[in-house]
């Protein structure tokens, strides 16, 4: 639209968008997926552009989107030290630079930031660009070759991106993080730790009970021995008072 002012301000929308698989950026017209997991085939999207003049004019076109259900292991993520909104704004130029320096057809699959909040679109200086490259025979280029070419052309790519973003740009290849433990393994480890703690607590309780019982038996035995000794002392004490003498007297009488 060659107009200026409100007449030249275009807003984009999806007409009769009832499937909710896709959405569109109303300012740039960029179409992106919302939820297409497990789906495949061709989708026909009616896209409308409307200016903001007094007499609003609109135009529509059909965009065909083909989804391949097969997943690719050849996607590579390039990391740019730029805000995500700046990268999105210049995504067409980023694609051009990558295609020119890699000498392959490059498809940008996704542009995202680690931050999920909207404020991150202007606050986080790291943006991830997921790409997939195809050679002249329209065959996927392996991830290893794409990474190798990105590293070889790193300085050339950064030089072109510096012109686009009017700032110093670094472009790096994201390396896959170390594989984390599977949930089942984590659950097994946790249960193992809990079981070990339970066994230790049980053993400690049993040992404490046995020790306490032995201590109780020892005290009981000592008490019994003390009572026995006290009985013997009382017997001799009685003899001193005449009991034994009385017995001796009785014996003399019998004689």
From TrEMBL:
Q: Tell me where in or outside the cell this protein is found.
A: Membrane
Q: Give every Cadherin domain span.
A: 1-77
- Record-linked CDD domains: Cadherin_repeat, TM_EGFR-like
Q: What is its main location?
A: membrane
Please name the GO terms that the record assigns under molecular function.
beta-catenin binding; cadherin binding; calcium ion binding
One GO cellular component term: catenin complex
Query: Which InterPro entries does the record cross-reference, listed alphabetically?
Result: Cadherin, Cadherin-like_dom, Cadherin-like_sf
Q: What is this protein called?
A: FAT4 protein
């Amino acid at each position: 639209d060659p107009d200026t002012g409100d007449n030249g301000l275009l807003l984009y929308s999806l007409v009769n968008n009832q499937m909710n698989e896709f959405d569109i950026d109303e300012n740039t017209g960029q179409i992106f997926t919302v939820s297409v997991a497990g789906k495949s085939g061709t989708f026909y999207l009616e896209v409308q552009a409307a200016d903001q003049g007094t007499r609003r004019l609109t135009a529509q076109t059909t965009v065909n989107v083909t989804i391949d259900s097969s997943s690719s292991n050849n996607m590579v993520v390039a990391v740019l030290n730029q805000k995500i909104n700046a990268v999105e704004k210049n995504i067409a130029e980023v694609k051009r630079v990558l295609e020119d320096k890699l000498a392959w057809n490059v498809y940008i699959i996704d542009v995202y930031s680690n931050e999920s909040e909207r404020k991150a679109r202007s606050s986080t200086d790291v943006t991830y660009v997921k790409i997939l490259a195809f050679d002249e025979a329209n065959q996927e280029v392996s991830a290893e070759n794409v990474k190798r070419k990105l590293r070889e052309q790193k300085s050339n790519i950064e030089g072109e991106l510096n012109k686009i973003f009017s700032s110093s740009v670094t472009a790096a290849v994201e390396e896959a993080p170390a594989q984390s433990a599977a949930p089942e393994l984590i659950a097994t480890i946790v249960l193992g730790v809990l079981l070990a703690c339970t066994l230790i607590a049980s053993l400690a309780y049993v040992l404490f009970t046995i020790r306490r019982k032995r201590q109780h038996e020892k005290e009981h035995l000592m008490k019994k021995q003390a009572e026995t000794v006290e009985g013997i002392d009382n017997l001799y004490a009685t003899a001193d008072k005449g009991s034994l003498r009385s017995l001796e007297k009785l014996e003399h009488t019998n004689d």
